[in-house]
Specification:
By secondary structure, the chain is an alpha+beta fold. The chain is built from 18 helices and 38 strands. Strands 1, 2, 9, 10, 11, 12, 18 and 19 form an 8-stranded mixed β-sheet that branches. An 8-stranded mixed β-sheet has the order 6-7-5-14-15-16-13-17. Strands 29-30-31-28-22-32 form a 6-stranded mixed β-sheet. A hairpin with a 2-residue loop joins strand 37 and strand 38. The mean pLDDT is 96. The structure holds flavin-adenine dinucleotide. Flavin-adenine dinucleotide (FAD) binds next to helix 1, strand 13, strand 17 and helix 9.
Length: 809
């Protein structure tokens, strides 16, 4: 075994082998994969091997689709036999909201490139004559997917990687991993040590153990999952065609043909099946290899009965084999794909619960990230750093069980689930709850979403629903009077020291504020010019800066800033997220309200827009920033979080005369869409530079060198392939969420990234990336919302207050 490599991957399952293959394709052939047993001997060998195209997330759909395009060609590419069954799949819908979901995914399919049709019960019967369709409203028919023999696929990936020069070492356990003095990793194995630049945790169910060695986190648990294989079934024996994989939410099962037998896999929906996690209180047996567990018929019986009712041809066939194995499950069912927090060049490629379907695509996009510094798709929803300390063991267990139980449930937008809640609360949590606040989770923070002042509960779905009017009223309060919102969830950093100014000028793209109290909006870029994060940067002094970014960016931004400090630079970074609470006070009456609580001069002359002051409000010393994300006169009050309750009470009391009201982030979305404020993670992502995102005015190419500057200059000269546009949509009863395709002359020319209904303007609005040919204001396009084409017109300016008069009032 060699003693030095560029990359060492720990674990030879579908995820590790998928990565090894794609690293080699990207040119990183000096990579070694180490497997403690045989390849696939963790979860991979026994998986049912289904690879669905249908998935609710636009970015994850790209991963699945890539795998589905790769697997049928793997044998040809690698010379290793792969059994791929391109039988397609049908997912069943029993409710109108599920049908809406299918229509939404059909839009994703149009963008991503897989075929999907929403078909009726009769058409389902034509494809699967023996499937009962009572109560079934529709099916999502995807004919470019199927299932693969996971061991064959995994071995082919490994063989392909070897052919390109990568190395696979079997029967060698990694025992420990240690950082070296010069910033590399020493991987200690049974057969000796390898020093490497990058190490990857692809250890499947053992991934938590691996993180323990390096003091990192792997927020997942190992669920036990089983499928049943029947004796041969006459109808299958007599048919030359393989039936598609059926995914049935009523039974919470998948079922398909396995040769001439049937195969039924069950996601039990009963809550609290904690005994069905593998080694819930520790790491699974280290010696375990190709391990399966005894069948548990009792647990799955109600689900099996539901399948037999739906497809009676199974009834006569006995069960000949039960496969009961372990699967990793994260709190949101997405894998952990990307850098581990706080550990330089330590990557995660683990936590996959549909890892056969995802292994190919995850490998491709993680390899891009490792080799080029960025992937071609938005990786935020897979980045391991989307979880922080708040995702403790109890949280991970509760939510991972919940996710497992809900594998086939409708993931309606905005659905709030009880698992692990409440998480991090501010001192306002109980107060706001008592006022009907419905909270939502942002990086562990309970954040106000909307206020149910009459006790109503939301009817979740894809169309405007019974909280549409409630949110409209919250928007009216902000636009006409004054609204208050707890936005403590921002990530917050103090950057201090003699070199802080120069450091930030180098790391971010905009000009730095020239005066104390100045604020700028600025972006940190990769060397490729692509955006890594958005900061609101306030200068308190030449050596003292305050940075705000999105809640979910906290750990990513901390890594970004930490890794950017150069040797000898006098820069101190402090994560002050938990210290400062943030109360937004916004609306035309906000100045009148705050004047009652502070002696700070709030006039335009003394306290202009985009400046900050250290002041006292309601006798609390705090930081007051004249900025907001809703486009009104307003301030953010950053006060020690322990003082939040007193501040809130004082603000609400002072605001009584002005009709002060609480509002939540649903209203914020409506208000920011009217002002054409882009959202981090949706409209601004790691896939694009500020040029495509129409953020040129926040980039100062003349200020000297900064990370990504050369790439931006090149991009400007070359022109862009996609351009952000702001559109008004002639919507009916549903607005853009993100992921909808845009059409011109019948062809897909772009994708929507976010949207919403502007309650003050009465206009449905969206952001989208389109072919630049269609980006000119006034261009007429079509957008498919829930599979219905609506007119979309490119706007030249924000729908609300384009001259920013209200902000500067
Ligand atoms: C019954 C069942 C059915 C399933 N059906 C499907 C399906 O239809 N479709 C689908 O997409 N997914 C399915 N899955 C899930 C799928 O099996 C997993 O998501 C996938 O196999 C995970 O791959 P992995 O590479 O992350 O993990 P693994 O396959 O477990 O690979 C991890 C590897 O790391 C090795 N390793 C661990 N620690 C060390 C160490 N210290 N040193 C060296 N090597 C180490 C292990 O031996 C193991 O081989 C199913 C799972 C089960 C249980």
């Amino acid at each position: 075994m060699k003693s030095q490599a560029r990359v060492v991957i720990v674990g030879g399952g579908m995820m590790g082998c998928g990565l090894l293959y794609h690293l080699a394709e990207e040119g990183w052939t000096d990579s070694v994969l180490i497997e403690k047993g045989e390849l696939t001997s963790g979860s991979t060998w026994h998986a049912a091997g289904q690879c669905p195209s249908f998935i609710g997330s636009y970015n994850m759909a790209k991963i699945h689709h890539y795998s589905n395009m790769l697997y049928p060609t793997l044998e040809e590419k690698t010379g290793t036999y792969v059994s791929w069954h391109g039988c397609g799949g049908i997912r069943l819908a029993y409710t109108e909201t599920e049908v809406d979901w299918f229509k939404r995914v059909a839009g994703i399919a149009a963008n991503v490139g897989f075929h999907m049709e929403v078909i009726g019960p009769d058409e389902i019967r034509k494809i699967v004559p023996y499937l009962g369709v009572d109560g079934v409203l529709a099916g999502a028919w995807t004919n470019m997917d199927g299932h693969i023999d996971p061991a064959g696929g995994c071995n082919a990936l490994a063989a392909g990687a070897r052919r390109m020069g990568a190395e696979v070492i079997r029967h060698n356990r990694v025992m420990d991993i240690k950082p070296t003095a010069d910033g590399e990793w020493n991987v200690i194995t049974e057969q000796g040590n390898i020093v490497c630049e990058h190490v990857v945790n692809a250890a499947g169910c053992y991934g938590r153990k691996v993180m323990e060695w390096v003091g990192g986190e792997a927020p997942f648990i190992n669920m036990l999952h089983q499928y049943f294989v029947t004796e041969p079934i006459r109808e299958f024996v007599e048919s030359d065609e393989e039936m598609p994989v059926i995914r049935d939410p009523a039974a919470s099962c998948y079922y398909r043909q396995e040769q001439k037998s049937g195969l039924i896999g069950v996601y039990e929906t009963a809550q609290g099946t904690a005994e069905e996690a593998w080694a819930p209180d520790g790491f699974p047996a280290w010696e375990s290899e190709s391990e399966l567990f005894d069948a548990n018929y009792e647990r799955s019986m109600p689900h099996l009965e539901a399948v037999l009712k739906r497809m009676p041809i199974w009834a006569e066939a006995g069960i000949k084999r039960v496969v009961h194995g372990a699967i990793t499950h994260t709190p949101d069912s997405n894998p952990l794909l990307g850098p581990a927090a706080g550990l330089r060049n330590f990557w995660m490629c683990a936590g996959a619960s549909i890892g056969i379907a995802q292994g190919g695509g995850c490998g491709k996009y993680l390899a891009q990230w490792m080799v080029h510094g960025d992937a071609d798709i938005n990786m935020a929803e897979f980045d391991p750093r989307r979880f922080g300390d708040w995702a403790d063991d109890d949280y991970v267990r509760d939510t991972s069980f919940e996710e497992y139980n809900r594998m086939y449930a409708l993931p309606a937008p905005g659905l709030e689930l009880p698992g692990g809640r409440p998480r991090n609360t501010t001192p306002l949590y109980d107060k706001l709850n008592a006022k009907g606040c419905v909270h939502t989770l942002a990086f562990g923070w309970e954040r106000p979403k909307w206020f149910s002042t009459d006790g109503r509960e939301e009817d979740y779905g894809y169309r405007r629903n019974n909280i549409f009017e409630v949110v409209a009223e919250e928007c009216r309060a902000v636009r006409q009077r004054v609204g208050v919102l707890d936005l403590s969830s921002f990530a917050k950093f103090a950057v201090t020291g003699k070199d802080a100014q120069g450091f930030l000028a180098r790391v971010t793209a905009n000009r730095m504020p020239r005066k104390d109290g100045g604020i700028v909006l600025t972006h940190a870029l990769a060397e490729t010019g692509r955006m890594q994060t958005e900061f609101t940067l306030t200068r308190w002094a030449e050596d003292d800066f305050y940075l705000l970014s999105g809640a979910a960016c906290e750990l990513r931004d901390l890594d970004l800033l930490t890794n950017a400090v150069e040797e000898g630079e006098d820069v101190t970074l402090t994560n002050v997220t938990d210290y400062w609470g943030v109360l937004v006070v916004a609306g035309p009456k906000s100045r009148d309200l705050l004047r009652k609580l502070t002696i700070t001069d709030l006039s335009n002359q003394a306290f202009p827009w985009f400046t900050g002051r250290q002041s006292a409000v309601a006798d609390i010393l705090l930081r007051t920033l004249r900025i907001n994300y809703v486009g009104e006169l307003g301030w953010e009050l950053h006060c020690p979080i322990s003082k939040m309750a007193g501040l809130y009470d004082a603000v609400m009391e002072a605001g009584e005369d002005f009709g002060v009201a609480d509002f939540g982030v649903h209203a914020v979305n409506s208000l920011r869409m009217e002002k054409a404020y882009k959202g981090w993670g949706a409209d601004m992502t790691n896939e694009i530079t500020p040029i495509e995102a129409d953020l040129g005015r926040f980039v100062d190419l003349g200020k000297g060198d900064f990370t990504g500057r050369d790439a931006l200059i090149r991009r400007k000269a070359e022109g862009v392939a996609t351009q952000l546009v702001y559109v008004e949509v002639d919507a009916s009863d549903a607005d853009v969420i993100g992921g909808e395709p845009l059409y011109a002359k019948g062809k897909v020319v772009g994708v929507a990234t976010s949207g919403g209904y502007g309650h003050a303007t009465g206009r449905s609005l969206a952001f989208a990336y389109v072919d630049p040919v269609f980006a000119a204001p006034g261009t007429g396009l079509e957008i498919a919302i829930l599979d219905e084409r609506r007119q979309a017109t490119v706007l030249a300016e924000p729908a609300y207050d384009p001259a920013n008069q209200r902000l500067r009032a």
